[in-house]
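queue> holo job accepted (nicotinamide-adenine-dinucleotide)
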Amino acid sequence: MYNLDNIKAPAGKMLIGSSWVSAQSGETLAVENPANGDIFAQIASGSALEVDLAVKSARAAFESIEWSRMRPLDRSRLLEQVALKLEQHADELALLESYDNGKPKHLALMVDVPTAVEVFRYMAGWCTKIYGKTLPVSGDGSRYHAYTIRQPVGVIGAITPWNYPLPMAAWKVASAMAAGCTVVLKPSEITSLTTLRMAELMLDAGVPPGVLNVVTGKGETVGEALITHLDVNKIAFTGSTPVGKHILRTSANDLKRVSLELGGKSPTIIMPDANLEKAIPDAAMAIFFNSGQTCFAGSRLLCHDSVYDEVIAGIKEVAKNLPIGHGQAAETMIGPVVNKKQKDRIENYIRIGQEEGAEAISANSKIPEQGYFVAPTILSGVSPDSRVFNEEIFGPVLTATKFKTEDEAIALANQSCFGLGANLYCRDGQASHRMASAINAGTVWVNSYFVLDPAMPFGGFKQSGIGREVGEDGVLMFTESKSVCMSLES
Ligand code: NAD
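queue> job finished
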């Protein structure tokens, strides 16, 4: 069943410059397959020492003539080469992700790997289009020529989570490189393997040593060393809201630039005129895809009273037909959640939901005995004041709440400390635009969900984050704007 022969993850090593190194302490962390609990690999457990070496390597690369004077067209070609290299290894990367994270391989091949490939291809275009402006200054009339230039921020500390390891790493690295920055990347200790393999493929593609360094290990050691390092200019973080807040507080010490992509509790809103043939399967997949471990998962169903029963029955039917199993089986749609800690946390939330008065509808009871599987679950009749309505569960659990009017739907959608995404199902064009404008979220999908595109800035309102990744905003956040003002008289 399992065949790791084609996988080449550098065992127990980290990338600093062009060298694959072990932790100087010799310590490693075990990598577990969530489908069966087997330990199938080890990663290096880095420390502040390796972070310091990696930052020095990134600084040297940033200041090197090879990187700092690389022509934008050549940087563009390099990013295109990286895209090509990842694409050529798509199958291998998808399989590796499936072992490491548990997600179905065919879905990683359809979503995770192309998302990573496409951001390198998209950002290749930006290398040649980072412009300043000519400024019409008013002081002393026309005796000054003033303009802005966009310069790379410098050395980036990038920190990524375990739910979409490869795309999250690629979004940061591709955007930072397009802007001319260099990177020290710390992947989640739970899922470091595809990031390490991506780094190896990037060296093969011709990325100069030191432009990307990868230090593996725990958040409280490697992550902490990165966010407190005085020679890191910016932290680009994706992960939970509590850790994001800690990073923001810590960055105040030296005013590091910080961008944060954090948690969510995104609504799927179904209006009375919605096309239910589309809305029902979409609402199901918006929460159950990736076993609910998606930051912008549609985890709160807000459904008009008149169609509520039909929608709940429909979502249950869709979920019932989603095969649950290990990620290498071709038919699997729902893999395990990432580890036991997450499984326990999700099951605890299902219990809390029931205690708070919701009806728990388990849509599929055929779950494997071994491994960390959780059946897709609907919590019906959830009160907006309950914990399960307000807290991020991060598993295949949908809360369902009724509304009667458009205003009530908007108020419920906005009743959250998060504001990452929202899915709206509505046929009335005017109502759709009204609601898209009124919902406080970084992205509103209308009659669609999960459409991510490297051209569309992505990020959160409120406690879902600060800043936007990808798109023009995503590349410019790795630059500093400098004004140059020159007298035209000597
Ligand atoms: P997490 O916050 O526990 O960990 C994320 C990363 O931060 C890991 O690499 C971890 O090692 C590191 N970390 C932990 N403590 C740290 C510290 N003190 N200093 C520096 N780094 C530290 O999050 P997770 O459990 O890996 O991921 C799930 C969370 O990520 C969910 O809340 C999800 O919504 C969020 N997420 C958000 C987005 C987005 O784009 N908004 C995308 C994916 C995931």
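queue> The radius of gyration is 23 Å.
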